[in-house]
Design brief:
This protein has 839 residues and is mainly α. The chain has 32 helices and eight strands. Helix 4 packs antiparallel against helix 7, helix 7 packs across helix 8 and helix 20 runs parallel beside helix 22. This is Armadillo-type protein.
Length: 839
C-alpha cells in the first residue's frame, strides 16, 4: 500500500512539475478501493490543514473521455445539495484535472466493514443510506429535470458522519442541453451496460432522451438496492432478457417491507416503473420503511429542529437519549453531535435536555477534536443567563471538566460561574458550591486563595442550612490545596463558625472538617487554637455533635501526645535544679483532684528537703542563736526563743526557697520557731539569692509587668499591713550572735561590709514561747500555715512611727528609696564576691 501511495504521489509530482503549478493541497494515500474514470486520493489543504479528497483525471491517458470528465466537473461545481458530494476546489490544466471535495470514502470499501455488524443495525444503516440517495435522485430528476445516468455502487461515497453522498456526475445531463453527454457517450463508461435499463439495452442511450428523466435512474436504483443488501449475490434475473419479475426466493437480505417497492423499481416498462420520488413517498408514509427507520427519523428531526414545536423537540431528544448507544459511532459523532451543538445556541427550555446529549455523544470524539467540537460550545454556554442551561452545565461538569485547561477556566468559565454564588435561586447557589471542588485544581492561586474564599465566606451565612453545611465541607476539602498563610488565617475561623451554626449537621460538618484538615495545622495551633475552639461542643445539646466532638478531641490529643513524646523533658534544666527535682518520677501523674493536691504538696516539700546537706538533716534546731534576717515591714516580728525542737527531715524549710511546710493539727496549735542554720550557709544562700534578684532586675524586671508587685497607687487597704505592722522585738544580748548575719560568722571570718538586706528572708530568732494573741495569729494567718513547731511571741504595741498613716506620695518615695538601697547592696556584694574569688 505504501508502495502504491508513493507511485501515485510521484506521478502527481511529475505532472505538477510539468505544469509549473503549486497545488493548494497535499496529496496523501491513494484510495485503491475506488475504480473508475478518476483516481481518488486522501489529501490535506495547505491553508488550514483540513482533510479533503482529491479526484484526479489524467488527460494524457484518456483523451477520449475528457468531455465526460469536464461534464462531471461542471455539474458537481453547480449542483448544491446536502446529499450530493460537496465540491471544494479544482485545479485544471491541459494535462490534469484535480477536483477537491469533502473527505469521503467509497461505498464499496465501507460495505465490507459493515458485514460484521448486526443484521438490524446494518439494515437500518442501509435503508438510511438509500433514503439519502433517493432524496438526491428526486432532486436531480424533478428539480433539475436531469438524468444522472450513472447510479451504481462506485458513484456513492460515505462522509465522515456515515452519510451517503451521491457523486459520479460524469453522465448527468438535461435533455434540453445541447452539450448533454449522456445520450451520446453514456456507453463509454466502464460496466455501463450492467447498470443500464432494459430500454437502454434495447434502443441505446438516446432512448433516455424520449422517456421521463427519472425512468433510467429508477431502474438503476433498484439494482443498487439489491447490490447493497446482497453484495455477494449476482444481479437479479430481471436485469437480463426477458426480464422476469423478481421472485421472493431471490429477495436475499432485502427487508420484506421494501421488497414490493423493489419489484416496481425493476419494472421493464419505463412508463409503469416506480421513480425515485415515488419510492421515497412510499417509504415516508406513516407505516413506511423510511418513516420507521430510527436513523431517518433522527436526521429529519435534526434538520427541522429549529422549526419544530416544543413537543416535537422533546420527542426527538427523547429518541436520541433512548437510542444513543445503538447509533453508529460516526453517525453519532459527525451527524447528530454537530446538529445538537448548533441547537444549543438557541437556548430555551430544551437546552438543559440537549446538553447531556452533547456530552454523551461527545465521548466518541477524538482528543484532538474535543476542545473545538465539544468544549468550545460548552464554555460559551456559561455566559447564558438561562438557569436551566446553567444547571445542566453544573450537573454534568464531572464529565468534561478534565478536558478544560487552566487558562480557559480562569478567563472564560469562572468569571461567569461566580455569578451563581449570589443567585436568588437556592438550587443554583448550592450547585455552584458543589462544583467548586471539581474546578479547584484548575484555578489560579489568586482566585483560589482570595476571590473564591470571599464567596465561600458569604455562603456560610446563607439562609439555607444545606448550603452552609456544604460550604463548610467544601472548605475542609479545599484546605490542603490552600496556601500556608491562608490555611492559618481561614480554616480555624471558618470551621469555628460552623460549630456555632444552629443546624446540627453544620456543626457536625465543622468538627469533621477540623479532623479532615488535621495535617494543615501546626502542632502548637492544635493546642492553642483548634482544641479550645472545639471544646465547647463537648457539651452540645445534640448527642450527634457531642459524640463527634469527643472523637475529634481524641484525634487531636493523640497527635499532640505523639509530638510531645519527641520533646525533651524540660527546656530549662536549671529550673529543675532550683526546685531540687532530680528525677522525672517526682512529677507523678494523678487521676483525681484530691490526689493532685496531695501530690503537689508532698512533691514541693520533699524537693526542698533534698537541698539540705546530710549533716544538717541529722542536726537539731538551736534556740539560742539564729540569723538576724529582716522581715518584711508588713509582717509581724517575733521575739527570740531559747527553746530548741527536733524536726523531721521532711518538714524542714530550705533557706534558698523560703517555702513553708504543711501545718500541724489544730490540737497542737500554731507555734513560732526559728530555724537553726549555720551562719556560713545562710551567708552563702543570701549572696546567691541577692545575685539572682540582681539578674532578674537587670533583665526586664518583674515578669508580671511591674518592678514591684505592690501598686503604690492602689487603695490603702493594700497597704494596711505595711502601715500597722508592729515593730521588731529587740534581740537578746546574751545569745552570742548579732542580728546581722554578716557581723561575725561561726568560723570567725570577717563580715561583709554591707548593710543588712531588708524584706528578703524572714527572720528566724530564738525566742520564748508565749501564747499568741488574737491579733498576731491573724497576722500570720495572712501569710500561711506551717507544719513545723513555731514559737509564740508576746503581743507588742505597734510602733508609733509605723502606725502613722502615709500618703501616696510618701509611699512612693519610701518604695523608691528601698529599691535604690537594695540595688546598692547587691552591687557591693557582687564586687565583694568577685574580690574573694580573685584572692
Amino acid at each position: 500500500m505504501d508502495y502504491l501511495r508513493t507511485l501515485g504521489s510521484a506521478a502527481v509530482s511529475t505532472l505538477v512539475q510539468k505544469s509549473g503549478l503549486t497545488l493548494p493541497f497535499i496529496l496523501g494515500q491513494k484510495v485503491t478501493a475506488f475504480d473508475g474514470v478518476w483516481t481518488l486520493y486522501d489529501a490535506k489543504k495547505r491553508d488550514d490543514g483540513s482533510l479533503v479528497s482529491v479526484f484526479e483525471y489524467d488527460c494524457t491517458m484518456r483523451r477520449g473521455m475528457i468531455p465526460i470528465a469536464k461534464n462531471a466537473l461542471r455539474k458537481l461545481r453547480t449542483t448544491r445539495h446536502p446529499d450530493v458530494l460537496k465540491f471544494v476546489d479544482v485545479v485544471e490544466t491541459e494535462s490534469t484535472i484535480h477536483i477537491v471535495t469533502e473527505r469521503v470514502r467509497p461505498l464499496q470499501d465501507v460495505l465490507q466493514s459493515w458485514t460484521s455488524r448486526g443484521a438490524e443495525e446494518r439494515e437500518d444503516w442501509l435503508l438510511w443510506g438509500l433514503h439519502r440517495v433517493s432524496v438526491a435522485l428526486a432532486f436531480l430528476n424533478d428539480s433539475c429535470a436531469s438524468t444522472h445516468g450513472n447510479i451504481r455502487v462506485n458513484s456513492i461515497f460515505i462522509s465522515p458522519s456515515g452519510e451517503w453522498k451521491l457523486g459520479g456526475f460524469e453522465l448527468l445531463s438535461n435533455p434540453k442541453e445541447e452539450t448533454a453527454v449522456l445520450y451520446t457517450l453514456g456507453g463509454q463508461l466502464p460496466d455501463a451496460a450492467a447498470w443500464a435499463s432494459p430500454e437502454t439495452k434495447k434502443g441505446g442511450w438516446a432512448v433516455l432522451k424520449e422517456n421521463d428523466p427519472a425512468a433510467g435512474d429508477a431502474y438503476a436504483l433498484g439494482l443498487l438496492l439489491h447490490a447493497v443488501f446482497n453484495p455477494t449475490h449476482p444481479p437479479p434475473a430481471t436485469a437480463t432478457p426477458p426480464h422476469p419479475p423478481p421472485q421472493p426466493s431471490s429477495r436475499g437480505s432485502i427487508p420484506n417491507s421494501v421488497f414490493p417497492s423493489f419489484k416496481k423499481l425493476l419494472n421493464p416498462n419505463p412508463r409503469g416503473r416506480l421513480t425515485a420520488k415515488g419510492f421515497l413517498a412510499i417509504g415516508l408514509a406513516d407505516t413506511g420503511f423510511f418513516a420507521n427507520n430510527r436513523l431517518v427519523k433522527v436526521c429529519l428531526g435534526l434538520d427541522n429542529f429549529a422549526l419544530s414545536s416544543e413537543s416535537e423537540k422533546n420527542m426527538l431528544l427523547r429518541t436520541l437519549n433512548d437510542s444513543a448507544n445503538s447509533f453508529p459511532p460516526e453517525f453519532a459523532s459527525f451527524r447528530v453531535l454537530p446538529s445538537l451543538v448548533s441547537a444549543l445556541e438557541f437556548g430555551g427550555a430544551s437546552a438543559a435536555t440537549i446538553l447531556p446529549l452533547v456530552i454523551r455523544f461527545g465521548k466518541n470524539v477524538s482528543p484532538e477534536d474535543y476542545p473545538t467540537v465539544i468544549l468550545g460550545p460548552l464554555v460559551k454556554l456559561f455566559a447564558s443567563p438561562d438557569r436551566g442551561t446553567r444547571m445542566a452545565l453544573l450537573d454534568h461538569l464531572p464529565e468534561y471538566v478534565e478536558k478544560l485547561d487552566k487558562k480557559t477556566m480562569d478567563t472564560k468559565v469562572f468569571p461567569h460561574l461566580q455569578t451563581g454564588f449570589s443567585d436568588t435561586v437556592a438550587v443554583i447557589r448550592e450547585a455552584t458550591v458543589k462544583s467548586v471542588i471539581l474546578i479547584a485544581p484548575l484555578l489560579s492561586d489568586r482566585i483560589l486563595n482570595n476571590d473564591l474564599l470571599r464567596f465561600l465566606a458569604k455562603m456560610q451565612s446563607d439562609p439555607e442550612a444545606s448550603i452552609r453545611t456544604n460550604t463548610c465541607i467544601l472548605i475542609g476539602r479545599l484546605g490542603p490545596s490552600l496556601g500556608y498563610n491562608t490555611k492559618r488565617k481561614v480554616l480555624v475561623p471558618a470551621f469555628s463558625r460552623a460549630l456555632k451554626d444552629s443546624f446540627v449537621h453544620a456543626r457536625v460538618a465543622g468538627l469533621m472538617s477540623f479532623m479532615a484538615t488535621i495535617e494543615c495545622f501546626e502542632t502548637e495551633d492544635l493546642a492553642t487554637k483548634v482544641i479550645p475552639n472545639i471544646s465547647f461542643t463537648l457539651v452540645d445539646k445534640e448527642k450527634l455533635v457531642r459524640d463527634q466532638a469527643f472523637k475529634a478531641i481524641e484525634l487531636f490529643v493523640k497527635k499532640l501526645e505523639t509530638h510531645v513524646a519527641t520533646l525533651p523533658e524540660t527546656a530549662v534544666p536549671e529550673a529543675s535544679e532550683t526546685l531540687g527535682i532530680t528525677s522525672p518520677a517526682q512529677a507523678t501523674l494523678v487521676n483525681s483532684a484530691a490526689g493532685a493536691a496531695g501530690v503537689l504538696a508532698g512533691w514541693a516539700i520533699s524537693s526542698l528537703g533534698k537541698k539540705l546537706a546530710a549533716t544538717d538533716m541529722q542536726s537539731t534546731m538551736a534556740s539560742e542563736s539564729a540569723l538576724a534576717i529582716d522581715r518584711p515591714t508588713s509582717a509581724p516580728s517575733g521575739s527570740a526563743s531559747t527553746h530548741s525542737l527536733d524536726v523531721q527531715t521532711a518538714n524542714l524549710a530550705g533557706v534558698r526557697s523560703g517555702l513553708s511546710t504543711p501545718s500541724l493539727p489544730k490540737g497542737k496549735g500554731m507555734q513560732l520557731g526559728a530555724h537553726k542554720v549555720p551562719a556560713s550557709v545562710a551567708a552563702a544562700a543570701l549572696v546567691e539569692q541577692l545575685a539572682e534578684e540582681a539578674a532578674a532586675a537587670e533583665s526586664d524586671g518583674n515578669p508580671w509587668g511591674n518592678d514591684d508587685l505592690i501598686d503604690i497607687n492602689a487603695d490603702e487597704d493594700d497597704w494596711s499591713a505595711f502601715e500597722t505592722a508592729p515593730p521588731a522585738a529587740a534581740p537578746p544580748e546574751s545569745n552570742g550572735f548579732s542580728d546581722d548575719p554578716w557581723d561575725q560568722g561561726e568560723n570567725g571570718s570577717t563580715p561583709l561590709p554591707v548593710q543588712q538586706p531588708k524584706a528578703i528572708i524572714p527572720q528566724a530568732r530564738p525566742s520564748p514561747v508565749p501564747t499568741l494573741t488574737a491579733s498576731a495569729a491573724a497576722d500570720w494567718d495572712s501569710v500561711g500555715t506551717w507544719d513545723e513547731p513555731s514559737a509564740k511571741k508576746p503581743p507588742s504595741s505597734p510602733s508609733p512611727q509605723a502606725a502613722t498613716m502615709l500618703s501616696k506620695e510618701e509611699k512612693a518615695a519610701e518604695m523608691a528609696r528601698r529599691k535604690e538601697e537594695r540595688k546598692q547592696r547587691i552591687a557591693q556584694m557582687k564586687e565583694q564576691k568577685r574580690t574573694n574569688v580573685n584572692q
